[in-house]
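Quick one:
INPUT:
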């Protein structure tokens, strides 16, 4: 959504869109102590660091679908993981599709998790044969150096990192004794080892980003290229990924304008949703934002430091992960309000977290019943531990946020299946998953989950858009 402008002229600017897996905000430039991320820290220092950006959903396909469609998961069709059979609705138009139609050259290297058929994404060309960062950056560098097309371009570089697992042979871990354990996790040795592995993965992926950005600079593209860095959702640790708490939806998002724009580096503290990414990029490029998009453009506010906030609140959702777990939430700068629509344990851990060292260090409280409603005061309780929903002193806050949430659900056509139907859908896709695990190929070391497979052939994807 953006104000109409009859005199809009497209800007022939490029976009390099870099996205990671399962990072949350675990970077030095977001306050994570001891993390080695000098290239992303430098990007933040010379760009616009969004301090309150959130995924529309706390798991991969729904979050990514929202990023690239500007529509919420229940609106675009990706209410669950693509490898569980969920797909975009036929009427969904994506960022690469719109840019291709508008005269941009569009290419994807590496990770995508929005469709079992990469052709559906709308890129002119793609290579999803390998999403490990070294391969992705090597191919992206080659593409940038070899291109002769004079059209502006969208280059998307999707990293498998920092998804689990974190094998030490690929990602030398940090020293567990030196890591800082975030406040939402217990300070136990298995958690420290787990974080050390994550940080080793971050170090490698950050170095790969540095090489890609160096190539952009080497080719003289800085003055005409937007650099957009984002991750899909929160870190793959208990009480983060797959939850609607801040650690589950909060994401690192850094946007560096073309140097030719003369936009000063700064922090952007307003609320920003994953559904806002595509409208914002289109608006920055001078293109119309389709009416079907439910996100808002922040283009004017990003380039003008004194502009009014775009959002008073943002909405997040979860429907399916490895089970049917329907949750909706509304978040303001002060409060987080969550509604849980099925009786579930306090934490419904997805499979990739359930077998992690951090999950094994939990004290059992994750199995307590989950409250139907949750309210947290983010000023005093940033890790969302003290539920105020039944506190009479906050009755007016609950009523207000509940009303906002229900109006948003009504306005966007958010209808959940009956519990028995949702449970059956989840049962069926997990049965297919377990059948797949019985094959020999699926029993590779640490790669049994489709989301843990960085190579397209292992994820049953069409790998290339051409015969090259």
């Amino acid at each position: 959504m953006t104000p109409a402008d009859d005199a809009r002229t497209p800007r022939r600017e490029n976009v390099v869109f870099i996205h990671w897996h399962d990072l949350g905000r675990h970077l030095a430039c977001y306050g994570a102590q001891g993390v080695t991320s000098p290239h992303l820290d430098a990007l933040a220092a010379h760009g616009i660091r969004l301090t309150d950006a959130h995924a529309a959903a706390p798991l991969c396909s729904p979050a990514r679908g929202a990023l690239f469609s500007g529509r919420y998961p229940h609106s675009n069709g990706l209410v669950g993981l693509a490898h569980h059979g969920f797909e975009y609705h036929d009427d969904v138009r994506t960022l690469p599709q719109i840019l291709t139609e508008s005269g941009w050259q569009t290419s994807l290297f590496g990770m995508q998790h929005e469709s079992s058929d990469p052709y559906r994404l709308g890129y002119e060309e793609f290579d999803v044969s390998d999403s490990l960062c070294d391969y992705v950056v090597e191919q992206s560098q080659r593409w940038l150096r070899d291109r002769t097309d004079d059209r502006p371009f969208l280059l998307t570089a999707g990293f498998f990192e920092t998804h689990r697992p974190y094998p030490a042979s690929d990602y030398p871990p940090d020293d567990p004794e030196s890591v800082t354990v975030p406040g939402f996790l217990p300070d136990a040795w298995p958690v420290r080892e787990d974080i050390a592995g994550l940080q080793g993965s971050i170090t490698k992926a950050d170095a790969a980003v540095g090489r890609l950005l160096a190539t952009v600079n080497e080719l003289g593209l800085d003055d005409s290229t937007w650099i957009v860095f984002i991750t899909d959702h929160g870190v793959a640790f208990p009480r983060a990924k797959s939850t609607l708490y801040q650690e589950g939806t909060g994401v690192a998002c850094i946007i560096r304008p073309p140097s030719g724009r003369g936009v000063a580096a700064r922090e952007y503290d307003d609320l920003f949703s994953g559904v806002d990414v595509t409208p914002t990029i289109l608006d920055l490029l001078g293109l119309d934002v389709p009416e079907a998009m439910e996100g808002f453009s922040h283009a004017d506010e990003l380039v003008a430091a004194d502009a009014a906030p775009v959002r008073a609140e943002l909405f997040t959702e979860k429907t399916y992960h490895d089970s049917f777990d329907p949750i909706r939430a509304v978040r303001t700068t002060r409060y987080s309000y969550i509604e849980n629509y099925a009786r579930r344990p306090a934490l419904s851990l997805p499979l990739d977290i359930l077998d992690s060292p951090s999950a094994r260090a939990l004290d059992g409280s994750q199995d307590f019943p989950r409250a139907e409603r949750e309210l947290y005061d983010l000023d005093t309780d940033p890790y969302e531990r003290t539920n105020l929903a039944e506190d009479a002193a906050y009755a007016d806050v609950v009523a207000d946020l509940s009303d906002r949430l229900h109006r948003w659900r009504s306005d966007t056509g958010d209808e959940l299946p009956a519990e028995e139907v949702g449970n059956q859908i989840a049962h069926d896709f997990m049965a297919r998953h377990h059948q797949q695990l019985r094959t020999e190929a699926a029993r590779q070391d640490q790669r049994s989950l489709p989301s843990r497979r960085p190579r397209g052939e292992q994820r049953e994807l069409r790998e290339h858009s051409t015969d090259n």
